[in-house]
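Q: Structure for this?
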Amino acid sequence: MSAKLSLKTLLFHLPILLLLFFAACKNDDLEMVKENENIRAGADFIKNNYQLSLFSAAIEKAGMYDQLNGAGPFTFLAPSDAAFNAMGILRASDFDKMNRDSLKSLVQRHVLNRRVILQDIPVNGVDVRYATLAGTQVYTSLASNFRGDPTQVINNLFYDGAFVERKDVQLTNGSLQLLNKVMKYDSGTVQDWLKKQPQYSIFVAGLKKFGLWDKLATPGPFTVFAPTNAALTTGGITAAVMDALVPSAYNGNRLFGGYILEGKHFFISDVQVFSAFGSETAYLKELENDTWCTQLSVTQANDQSLRYALRLKKARTGFSYTTSSGGNTSMVTVDYLTDNGVVHSSTGVIAKLADARK
Amino acid sequence: MSLLRRQHLGFYIIALLLITGCSKVDYVKVDSPAYLRVFNNLNYEKTLDSKDQEIPFLAMLIDPVMDKDGMPVSTKILGDFLDQRAPYAPPYPSHIGNSTTVNNPEYPGKEDVLVAPVLNGFDLSSWAQIPSGKHRIVFLFRPKNTVPFFELESRLKTKVLIDTTLVLDEKEVYTLNVLQKDYQTKKNGILLRHENFYKLPLSDSLVYVNFYNLSSKGYWEADYTGKGANIGNKGALGDGIRDRMNVFYTLYRKSSTESSLSNYFGKYLGELKRNTGEPDVSPYYSFPLFADPLSDGIHTDIWQRLDLLAPGMDPSSKPYTGIQKETDNNWAPISCFANGTLPLDIIRGDENYVLLPNMIVNIHSGVYKSRSFATVNTIEIVNGKAYLTTIQRKYAAPIYK
């Protein structure tokens, strides 16, 4: 009875035993999920990218290759080769002309000490600040949607006024954002910055003459549209004219005050970002104790580069302007960030002597 | 033996119950309370001009303790994460169950505090109990994040918006508004209003409403795009209204502006003056709850349209059309319809209104699935935005059959 039962049990379990028997065979061709080995660490990725050869050269010359291949996480705000070319850096050897510490600081200022991708940045966030490896901060502005309509997504992203052409490239040690220009920063005030640049000497002399110079050393912030010496000379204000100028005969606010926006911290891209929030395409600000206004407007070219125009308007409403206008079509000589504001170079003047004569 | 064990077990259970059953419950109690509700009226739009200003995201400290450097270290009452107020301040604290953020559109709002009782029939659960007497009250700017105020870095706890004292009387109802007094100089202030609706002999068959214009000085004169008047659905009100306006109302049936009630078209309610300095309570105006002759006396679906018009104009003679958003600050319509988010049936030429919820509360009460209740309302106009505060009476609980 018992033996019969065990045989019956054996027969009953036979299919399972057979299954186990065949399954026990060694199977070398079994496909396993393999981790993708194609993803590279940040510095490697940049080195292997033809669009980023100059940034890669900068990393190597700054001696940061190994650090940036390390664990991170990092966010690489990598300017494209075109961005370096626009600054006059055409080949890797051009970096040799730079001080190595400045170069290192430049690279460090383009790397965040955390991983930031688009969805980490607050929707429609303006001036969101992230720390860089250099200990400085970058100002991040994102226009998420058009006119506040969540269905119209645009996601225009700028770091320190530089447009992000390609977002969220994933790396093993962080992410990469491709910038269309190199972010500029100098420690010190707007005043310090202007003092160091000889091409603004007439402008600086004018600010000093009309009592507008000292405030540029205060906390501010200030946005300054600095006309170059060439621009002022073309506008009839040469160094000699400036020396001979009698301040009491002119309205200094109209002659030079219009280039300064007090209490404002504007990158050129900010006008573009805010035009997406409302229909504000130009910014108007009255001069101090005056009805004349500074008008800042920005247009975007097909290649996403921004150009600004600055004009002096004789009243908030209407269309009465001075005859000359400032601005800059190049995105290289704008968005100079300092500790108390931003400076933009202007290739024209907004007021000639005749406009400001009392 | 087993009997003994059972007895032991019984003893242990009783002992356990006795030990755990006795715990002292300390009920939170506020002695001689006053009732306070706080709104942050510092609304703003994201414009280039406002970009570099401090964001009015506030922390309210009542009777704070400061160290020798003036740094707040603790406070008796804290109203943290005080955000811009919502367009609708409902008659009960509904925000707490309806959102996932810490941002508080009013105080007490989402705060877990003792609230006021039913006073003369009015449900005051949106008012917090505060000890009566003299208080130091400080509003501070705080960064827009989810870190509680006292855990912030020291440098972020020093931006004082206003530091003042106020006196609250026992069992009185107050509404405190944080507001901007001057649009050009950006001077801020507070306005404490001693409410009186619970002392007035208000009928429960009339809907009451009063108006305040808490706009800052110079808002309506400021530049249209510069103040962000075109951003959001602010209609003609976005540009601001003049300092003195008249209010007219019209009652409509159905969800369109086609079918006004013939006796309630363009009727004059009263005057509205801009006021950020005097804490006076504006007079309450009323209209009948069952103004619609077709209603059954239980439920009504009428809704309200308010026209704010400059003196000299009335709803039928105004020289503007309903598609104009720029009306020279002379006309701003407000529609109180449904829950304040549903758009009205689209009618050509009627687009420049601001939408707020209906002043009449419709809810299941008693055996009636939808029963209409009259309320007491306050409409506040602040710099191009309109806010509705509704106060309702206690109503009978629903009976489900």
